[in-house]
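seq/struct pair 1
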Amino acid sequence: MSLEALLIVSAILFAIGLYGTLARSNVIAVLMSLEIMFNAVNLTLVALAKFVAPQGLQDNLANALTGQVFAVFVITVAAAEIALGLGIVLAMYRNTESVDLSQATQLRN
């Protein structure tokens, strides 16, 4: 695949995730949409690292793997976000017995 095709797929994934985040009222669906957006960013980082990094420099491996390293950091942040988000979902379900965002009107209790 070419760089343009990968960036187009990434932009489509990001747009789908953004729409799901803004249009949904279910907390679980919003978290899944955020994960789709994170995966779109990961795809962009890895694609740019593959096509933009200099190919002839085998000695300087750090420059060639920059996108992959950033993708690992994004995956780590996504895992922390899901752990925190699921904790919030459980607390919300205990208080309101629903995971609908429209019923989340107060921050305490």
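seq/struct pair 2
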Amino acid sequence: MENTKTNSTADIRLMKGNEALAESSLRAGMQAYFGYPITPQSEVLEYLTEHAPEYKTIVLQAESEVASINMIYGAAGAGARVMTSSSSPGISLMQEGISYIAAAELPCLIVNVNRGGPGLGTIQPSQSDYFQSTKGGGHGDYHLIVLAPASVQEMSDFVFEGFRLAEKYRNPVLILTDGALGQMMEKVELRPAGSLPYVKQDWATTGKPKSRGRNYISTLHMDPAQMEMVNITLQKKYAIIKENEVKFDEYKVEDAEFVLAAYGLTARICHKAVDLAREKGIKVGMIRPITLYPFPVDQFYKVGCQVKAILDVEMSAGQMIEDVQLSVKGKCEVFFTGRMGGMIPSPEDVLQKLEEIVELYSVTKA
């Protein structure tokens, strides 16, 4: 199952986010992909169907999202480097299987190209799957490692990082992106194939040699004491992940009196809003969580101790704001602004809300 195609150097292309992600999955040594088409991520399956033969990678369109996640479960249990992708309603259908995979401690990569909801909603971009992604959309006490790209380049890079983390911790990893990042075209530097070596997994269910005992994968434990031990093991792993894998980015935070909090596409919007505010003399910065789980709690607390207020900006009704509020522990006020259902806030929208907050503090001080 080794990936046989290798390139000596990376190359630069103009690509859609979905296509860059798909190409990177092949170059990252993905051995099998199981998925089902749904906009706005259908290009992932389409691209893989066309190009997978060059890499001798298995690509299969399952009969449903439920089938595809269970195929991922089986292939991951056999030690394969595997990925699936979908968009919001499809990811909802996968939740039971994702819980099984997390409980079985199997590595895999899942991609959610978030669209507006609830319900079938719209094919326009949204960030309303934050709760589902970071709090565990399925049953039980489990977590995914969640990466939030903000560019086509990160759509590409996070595939490699996602597979690395999944295999390091034997845990499913989710790339939470959105329809705009999936559809937009940007310059991307693609990593060479073969740059993420595949290591044969000694726990995989690939047959039993005489030299070892049986490999057995299951999530059914009728003894509650045994089920508790499984949960304790998972929680210890999550604690290690929190200690070692937090990633974030900051912009002009050093002297800031106010800070914008945003991830993914809205972080790009807030980056521009910071520049517009600075032109008006408002000392504002931005903090962007790159890992939504584990969340950069310590960094938000540090920022909360420094500034007057944080403005959380999302393409949702306000889901990440709960993590921001918990992280700052009351050290500063946290405000929210956002759009829903596939609507995207503009930098001017964010600036207007920021100016209202600044004025509030000016009046209060006076």
